[in-house]
Amino acid sequence: MEEETIPWRIGSQGRKPRTLVSCLPCHRRKVKCDREQPCNRCLIAGRSNDCIYQNPRSPRASFPAIGAFIDGKARLARANSWASLCWEFEEARPYLFGLDPEFRAMYDKVEGLKSLFLSSNGRFANKDNLQIASASLRLSKSELLSYISDRGVIDTLLSNYMQTFNRILPLWNPTLFDEEIARFWDSPEDADLTSFAQLFVMLGLSCHSAPANTSTLRKHDLSEMSKTFFTIGEAAFNNSRFKSLHDLAGVRTLCMMIIARMIDLVPMHDTQDGTLLFGLTVRAAQNMALNRHPSLFSGMPENEGINRIIIWTTIVFMDQFISIHFHLPPLIRREDHDATFEFSIQDGSTTSNYGIWEERLKDSSDENQLAFLALMSALLPTVSVILEQLHSTKPALNYEEVGKLNKKLRDSLSLAMQLAMGKMEGATSADVSMQRGLLEIFIRRVLLDLHQPFAITQEASANAEHSRLAVLECALALMICQEGIFEAAGQHSQMKCLLDLFKDDFGIAIIYVTLGIRRGDFTVSPVDTLQAPPEEVAWTALRRATELTEWYTGVSVKHFRIYAGAMYLVAALEALETGAPMMQKMMEAGHMIIAAIEKRKGKGAECGNQTTLHTNISMFEGFGEPEEMGGFINALGLSSGNAELPAVNPCFYTFQS
């Protein structure tokens, strides 16, 4: 039997006329149309009624078509994306995906709220409307210096950056930073454009986390300052020589631009916007051999060698963060680099195994930063193994390997707990809480990804049960983390960047707990000290987590989508629990979403991204002290009888000031 082939057409013979997919107004103006109904350009121009399509799309897709699409996405990416997880909630499918014809009007109305996040050019923006600067914007050095003439404000912002972002995503060794800033102020007119870009992007990030009640900042609009600094910084970088001459300042600038996108300070318009920029960052760093240990380069100053390892460690973390959140294989493989610190942590003290680099870092860093870098260096190789496997075409991990990786992650989690439990000197400060928060949330999310393939199986095996319990435990722990960070941000404004950084992880946790309640997974025997049934505690955590997403819903379109999804899920779950009509509950949720967004966007109310946060409702109200949740998590913990999957050590998010 001959193999059937498809001929490749050459030229224009037989070409069919192109189908017009843009709306008629955009087609007449020859501008790009997003093909929505109405499209974004027509919304902005106030001509929604004129947004007509020559070839209208079907009002709704069929269940099989959307199901096949989501199933295909799950196979090509992984099964813990938002769409794949929500598809498991069969009763809510018609409403979550806009398939119910009676609910379609409300669905479209809620979807239309995203127009409130559009900037003047029709692209999504955050509440500060930050945009990438045009390459045509050119400023002289005297003009650049005029924006940083107030040394008091600039020094305050730089100090704040070092105590916030540099604590959790370090790009500087403090000693080298002080030396470089001193050189800049000695002769600022001699600095190149890359150095200016680095400085302005640092200032833009710092404005996001700086407390507005600081005496030197009280009279300034930090949002406007952040917008100005980013515009100038990216313009300076676009006009710099970085593309032809790579240096550490340029790599740091690229990293900070990506951080701004990770926290939605600068909107990431699509997947490619952030991932392509990060690809450039990795290649630039590799071109400078940042992935190789500085001991290989004779004569390299110790401070520079230390700083190179710090930058590379952060780049590896960002690679894994992007891999998790965009369902892509990591760019950096374990065998591609050896630039890492070799530390061991025993009984809360950090010791280096070898080398002048670790000893020099120990002399120039505080104990907490040293421990954080040591924990990060030890954690990243394990995460790399997991992500390389999950996003590869190789067969899935066997459960023996899952058990070993699970143990390594939980060992790292236990060490991260020591960082915040006072076992290390100075562990009660807010900056250490940030470091511990980043490590804990990151590890919990990786554990979710590790166990998810086994948790969704229909097998009644012990392996599947262990993974289901691990998923529930980690999802609840993420909710506790979110609650703790939110409350801590009321006293320490720098904590709020963690809420923006891990918003997707908190949203995924909401879905996991919702599905767990729906399946009846929270049926473990109540712990003696617990004052309510486990399912009721899970319900309380779920409702509180949804309240917290509402607080930030006006910040960006991503925050809005997470909040809307959470509201729909809770409404559907309440309908099943109470026997109320599903349509009624979903319509109520739609009206609440619209009211919340219009309050924060339509009426110009302050968004959740504030300096001071207050909350009078505790996740644990009515259930005793927060520590009681730990008993509940322990009850969900994996059996201590399994050597590969030890009992879970409960993680309470308690901040000490």
UniProtKB/TrEMBL annotation:
Q: Domain Zn(2)-C6 fungal-type, which positions? A: 22-53
Instruction: State the InterPro entries in the record.
Output: Sec_Metabolite_Reg, XnlR_reg_dom, Zn2-C6_fun-type_DNA-bd_sf, Zn2Cys6_DnaBD
The UniProt entry's GO CC annotations, sorted and at most eight, read: nucleus
GO terms of biological process kind: DNA-templated transcription
Superkingdom is Eukaryota
| GO MF annotation list | DNA binding; DNA-binding transcription factor activity, RNA polymerase II-specific; zinc ion binding
Compartments, as annotated in UniProt:
Nucleus
Q: What is its main location?
A: nucleus
Arranged from A to Z, the UniProt key words for this protein are: Metal-binding, Nucleus
Question: What's the name of the protein?
Answer: Zn(2)-C6 fungal-type domain-containing protein
Q: Could you tell me which species this protein originates from? A: Aaosphaeria arxii CBS 175.79
Q: What is the lineage of its organism?
A: Eukaryota, Fungi, Dikarya, Ascomycota, Pezizomycotina
